Amino acid sequence: MIDAVLFYLFAGLMLLAGLSVILNRKPIYSVLSLLVVMFCLAALFIMLDAVFLAALQILLYAGAVLVLFLFVIMLLNLQPEALARTRAFTLLGGGLGAAGVFVWQIVRLLPVEGGALRTGEAAPSGVEALGRLLFTKYLLPFELASFIILAAIVGAVSLAKQEPPARRG
Amino acid sequence: MSALAPITLTHYLVASAILFSFGLAGIMTRRNILMMLLSIELMFNAANLTLVAYSRAWGNLNGQVMVFFVIIVAAAEVTVGLAIAVLLARQLHTMNADEAAHLKW
Fold first, then answer.
1. DSSP tag of A123
2. Could you tell me which residues are beta bridge partners of residue A47?
């Protein structure tokens, strides 16, 4: 029972914040709404026994990615997006397209037998089991991930670096 | 109280589908590059919720490992995307994706 109450609380808050992400005209409010989405999602992860991923969600998404967004927004000092620039056609098309995809997802999904979520001992959880899997079965992707991060660091620095006005020889 | 049935896999999948549709609507309607990146983050998170829910329902951890990699790739993607956004704002003085159409013939 408490499960259901918590699920509806966090899922409802997550969806409200998600709506607020795409409806706000100022990017900074959208970023702060996305922060609420991340925290609610972390709560849902804990309810699904994925404690390590919940911690990762808060540390990496809320702590690093969203702070990066905030940095860029404050650095660029944006004007709010003009409403007149968004045409009614775009809004209608986007809304209808998203609604169509949603209906398609639901139609595909509802025949899937819901089934109760497996409890406790059937599903191994915890950092130890995850780490064991990560360093045996998924060792190669794990090492490749470090290459992706290195490439992202180098790419970001070389893209965003300001060229010095006059290069000294 | 029968209104609060036990939470099943379907509950999580429906919540994830709604969140994904929000992200999709956002990326199709907003033209600000930062807003498009935020919408992509929403869609990533909806996919993560699906993976974790299935991982719990099937009783193995492969889905959680996949979410781990998705988070890493999302962090890398956001880093490069924001660098490009900064570059765009510096060179073209705009954040509107429609105005960056120099490669279009």
1. S
2. none
Q: What is the ipTM of this complex?
A: 0.88
Q: Does B29 touch chain A (CB under 8 A)?
A: yes
Residue recorded with tokens 């497996």: A118
Nearest C-alpha neighbor of A60 from the set A42, A48, A47: A42
Q: CA–CA separation, B101 vs B105, rounded Å?
A: 9
CATH topology of domain B9-94: Helix Hairpins (1.10.287)
Q: Tokens in use for A124?
A: 């191994």
Are A66 and A38 a contacting pair, CB within 8 Å? Answer: yes
pLDDT digits (tens, 9 = 90+) for B44-55: 999 999 999 888
DSSP secondary-structure letter at B8?
Answer: B
- Retrieve residue B18's tokens: 């709604």
Chain-chain contact of B38 with A155 (C-beta, under 8 angstroms) = no
Query: Which residues share a beta bridge with B8?
Result: A116
* Residues in A touching B95 (Cβ below 8 Å): 76, 78
Domain ranges of chain B: 9-94
